[in-house]
Amino acid sequence: MRGKLYVVATPIGNLEDITLRAIRILKESDVILAEDTRVASKLLGKYDIHGKRYISFHEHNEEKRIQEVEKYLEEGKVISLVSDAGTPLIQDPGYRLVKHLREMEFDVIPVPGPTAFVAALSVSGMPTDSFVFLGFLPHRKSRRKKLLDKMKELNMTFVLYESVHRIDALMEELCEYFPERSVFVAREMTKLHEEYISGLPCEIKNSLIRKGEFVIVVGKQNEG
Ligand code: SAM
Known about the structure:
The protein is of the alpha/beta class. About 35% of the residues lie in helices and about 20% in strands. S-adenosylmethionine binds next to helix 5, strand 7 and strand 10.
């Protein structure tokens, strides 16, 4: 019998945000493929899951790991893929692995749970009937500009991820490109100092605490 790969969502802050099924699947797994094995073993330890075989799996060794994972699956092993937080593959490694395993007709099963952009959208008060998820904007200036220009044309809610290092630059850009559009910033969701701010980008950029992780939701033109 061939094994299975489970793609398991884990909390984005509050460790209670894990599903019963995720805990069971992690317990039943032979191998845990983890973005950072120390983060994963600490997380699993909180749920009393010990003695697992951990294999590091990040953007720099994804290609190299594919054959190894395939071998384990051929042996009938159950493998769970976890990232440091939230849903694997959502701005996290795993795409090439999942694509390959699907092509090889292995079972790849989702174990759904938290994703930062969905959590932010759900409390943003912005139109969510349709939206564009952009994740982290490209660093290259020309590509970044092209994308923001496109968002200007497209009258849709869009969602961005940003780290503390680049939040200032991003808020400056939003203030320049979308001065009239409502913006919602979710900072450190589900953690001790979680914070949610709505307003125009030029207002928000001055009041934002520059600490932690951010999801930014930009509303449609003339709506909020
Ligand atoms: N896989 C994750 C998910 O399902 O959302 C995303 C991983 S990505 C590498 C990390 C980014 O997600 C952070 O820079 C931030 O933009 C966002 N993020 C993750 N956790 C967050 C939280 N608790 N509060 C706000 N943003 C968060």
